[in-house]
Amino acid sequence: MDYFKINGPMTLRGEVAVSGAKNAALPLIAMTLLAKNPVEISNLPEVVDIRTLLKLLHSLGATFTLEGNRAVIDTCCLTDTKATYDIVKTMRASILVLGPLLTRFGHCEVSLPGGCAIGQRPIDLHLKALEQMGADITIQAGYVRAQAPEGLKGAHIIFDKITVTGTANIVMAAALAKGKTTITNAAREPEVAQLCEVLRESGVSVEGIGTSELVIYGTDRRLIEIAPFSVIPDRIEAGTYLCAAAIARGSVTLTQVRPEHLEAVLGKLEEMGVPLQVEKDRIAVHPAAVLKPVDITTQEYPAFPTDMQAQFLALCTQAEGTSTIEERLFENRFMHVSELQRLGADITLKGNVATVKGPSKLYGADVMATDLRASSALVLAAIVAEGETDVHRIYHLDRGYEKLEEKFGKIGAKIERLSE
Ligand code: UD1
To answer: What's the whole-model pTM score?
Structure first.
C-alpha cells in the first residue's frame, strides 16, 4: 500500500492547473449509456474513480479508449445489464448506471453499494423516484432488480432531501422516458447542471438547468447522439489547493478554474482574511497577515460544500481564535478529527459540530487517511506541521485527486510517495 511522506513546514509558490471534476465526469460517463454513437469526453481527471466506472461499463460490454484525459466510449453493443458487487462495492457512485440502464433496456440489476466511511448513504430516494416512473423494484440477494418492460414514464418527482447522484440518476432516466418528468427539490450542483446541459445539447429538452426544479421531456427510448464535450473544472480540487495556499501562507495561482462555482468557499476564505484576486478563470491567493477564525455550516450547493469541510477544519487549526464547523449532510464525516489531533490540533467534537481552537503548533506524526476529502486535510496539515508526517492509506486520495504529489511539487511542496 502507498503512503505519503511529507516533511514540513513548507512554503508554497507558483501555479496549479485545476483538473476536470471527478463528480461531473462520473454521471457524464454513465450518460454515455443513453447514446447511439461513440462519445468523446475530454478533460477527464486521471483518477481511480474514473477508471472504476469505465471498468464497470466495460463489464457490461461497452468498449472504450482512454488516452490521458480523453476517452471515447461506445455503449452501442452492450451485452449485459448487471452491475456486479465486485465493482460497485469499490465506488458508491456506480449507482449512477441504474437510471440509464433501466430507461434504455427496461430492466437491470445493480448491486447495492453498501456502507461507506462517512455515513449510511442510502439510495432510497433514487429507488422511490424510479418507482414513480413506473419501475418495479425489488431488492434481492444484495441487488437492486429493476423492471420496466414498457419503458419508464415521465412523472412528478419531489425529492424529500436534496440528492446529487439521485438527481443525476433521475435526469438520465427521464431523458429516455416517455413524456414529461418534473424534478422538484433537485440538486443544483454545477456537476448536475453540466449533465443537463450536455443532454440538452444532445437534443433532449431540459428546462430549469441550475435551479431546484428541472423539467425533462423524454425521447421514449430513442437513443441520443452526443457530441464531444469537455468536463468542467473540479471545484473541490480547486478549493483544496486554495486551502493549501492559505494554510502555508503561500502565493499560489489556480488556473483553469471556474470561480463562479466556488462562491461559498471564496467567501469563507475572505472572511478568514485570505487575500484573493479573482479573475474569469484564475484565482490568486496571497499570504494572510492574520488568519481569522470562521463559522461554517455545510449544506447543498450553492452553500458551503461538505466536500470542503475537512480541508477548512485543517485550515482553522491555524486561525487566531475559535472556529466552528457544523456538518449537516453526512453524520459520520469527522473521522479526520482524531488524525488532526494526533498532529496537535485542538478540536472538540460534539455531535455534528467541531470546535477548533487556534492557532496550534502542529508536529509531524503517522496519520491515516479515512476518506477522500479527509485525506487531503491531512496533507494540508502536514504541510504546516513541523517534522515528518506519514499519511497512510492514500488510496483514498488516488480516487479523486489527479497527480496530487506532482501538482504540489510544482508549487514547492515535496510530497514523496512510498510503499509500505
Ligand atoms: C455526492 C458527491 C459527494 C458529496 C455529496 C454531497 C458524487 C459522486 N458524490 O454524493 O462527493 O459529498 O454529493 O454534496 O457526486 N440521501 C438519502 N437517500 C438517498 C440519497 C441520499 O437519504 O437515496 C441522503 C444522504 O445520506 C446524505 C444526503 O442525502 O445525507 C445527500 O447525499 P447525496 O447528495 O445523495 O450524496 P451523493 O450523491 O452520494
So the answer is: 0.97
